[in-house]
Amino acid sequence: MIENTLEIPVEIPEEARNPVEPFLRMDRMPHIWCPGCGIGTTVNCFTRALLNSKANLDKVAVVSGIGCTGRVAGYARLDSFHTTHGRAIPFATGLKLSNPELQVVVYSGDGDLFAIGGNHFIHAARRNMDLKVICVNNMTYAMTGGQTAPTTPGSSITATAPYGAFEPTFNLASLAEAAGASYVARWTTYHVKQLSRSMEEVLNKKGFCFIEVLTPCPTLYQRRNKMGDGLDAMKYYKEAGKIRNGAPTGECGLTRSGEIVLGKFVDRERPDYLDLLRAQMTQALGERYVEPEASCSSC
Amino acid sequence: MHADPKGVLTGVHFLDGDHACCEGTLAAGARFSAGYPITPSTEVVERFASRIPTVGGIFVQMEDELAASIAIQGAVWGGAKAFTVTSGPGFSLMMEHIGYAAMTETPCVFVDVQRGGPSTGLPTLPAQADMMQARWGSHGDYGIIALCPNSPQECFDLTITAFNLSEEFRVPVMMMLDECVGHMTEKVVIPEADGIEITPRRYTTLPPEEFRLFKPKADLVPDMVRAGDGYRFHVTGLTHDERGYPSMDVETQDRTVRRLQDKLKPLANGRCLCETADLEDAEVVVVSYGITSRVAQRALEMARDQGVRAGKFRLISAWPFPLERIRELAARVKAFVVPELNLGQMVLEVERAAAGRAAVIPVSHAGGTVHNPDTILKAILEAAR
């Protein structure tokens, strides 16, 4: 079958390179992620989105918090910041406001962005801060050994819920929409084309944009719950994933094994923080208002 | 280089310490501040919010102190000079990011207008009980600088010094005001912009392929870059090598953490900021700082009137602590008297420096008001006996 459909040279030529390599710090490979983990897949999608968006890579910054996904900043060959737990968004807020020509991407996990960092998320969405937030949702705290997250579905066994998790979870898409996000989408690491397209789309959209990516964690979540390996997760995503663009986010909650509603749920125009600031100050101060000076490396 | 005249409100003013501190940030070139309201410090950012739109910069009121204290660091890596302002409870929340600034060598300024604690304590009343927290509040070993103004004029002057030191040494610098200094109103003279020296950021002149983000120069401080200039650099709070890449090895940890402390050594003594008087013949030296130094001044004068040879040692930079200076004095004076609005914090440093060679007498006060000068006088007289 393979021989008929693909032409794979027996020997890979010396000069052959994966097209994503220029986007990665190859001197830091191999990465720390486990076999079957989906974070690398999301990074692959992200690099393709950067490639397609033709963004000036010198002007793209990645900000991460702490956790497995927090390590993305360390592998991206961009200006990249690995901050403190939960605080990627406020760091990114300062970075963006002091240097507005930067495209600032926040790349972090569900525990980081929605437990310890939840308050910052809703406030950045409310302000419509021009940040692109990519949340890798593996439904657990993986880096610390698989503890319960605000996204861990009911009855899952975790390191801190040995008899099963029972707390209600956040519906991240609904939360983002309610808080004011300009763009909300959800994909899985099975839906790589759609995910890349969404990422490319937000790189060209102003305002607070949010993409949730469901990602397998075979080592620390699936293993405890007899959910198989990374491939089993792909099969589940394929079978349970239902693309419904524009679906009401309130009806898109996730369960452990039920349907996964996917798609672009929200895409709306709202003035972003700097637009609002400029408008208000111009109205109040007229010609006395001075635009924030772009930071300058010679001063 | 000289200050940018856009931020300098040249003239003679009648300002409280909080407002003077704000003018200091503007004169120093700060064009970004993130804050969260808390008494008795909020006036600093209230004034900044009012002034900055006509100077050219950003004030953003964040959702909490954690956010404010990391937003300023994002702004610094974006190229701005930045600061935040708080008081006790907020200062506690900022500790993690003081550690982040120390580890990532992010130059920035934290203003703490101290009030009574612990916890919510005395929101509107003075204390000086955050002095050890300023030094040791975040986990791990690191060096910081903390300055203690005792007047609105010094709130202006030392805020500029704070920014300059933070750029020179790439450390977080604390401005340790107290409620009294923050709220006392006095004459403040703001000079012409070309009379204000500003330390520019230490931007590298090396091209990206030769530059290493955490490679120290001869003074142990590395040069910096800002985001967006093509260096494609990485910053992490993890222990990192000269490239900024995470490193788990013991040697890197040792080298990094020692350097974070050692780079401040030049400040510890030779360049420590202090104000002294009558030390030549002193038998008793009063070591004080902030508002307490103003009260102690009265006690010193009364002691001299009574024939006691009392000398003044005012800490302007509490951290690094001027260990050598106090050690020298300990060899020739009878006693140190250390009044402070806490139950004994900087006095521990004085004791450490004196190392038993001179008596060290704390004059503690839990805060809420200032000392009565008579209490300090009594301690001086007893020490001289």
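qc> Chain A touches chain B through 50 residues (CB under 8 Å).
qc> done
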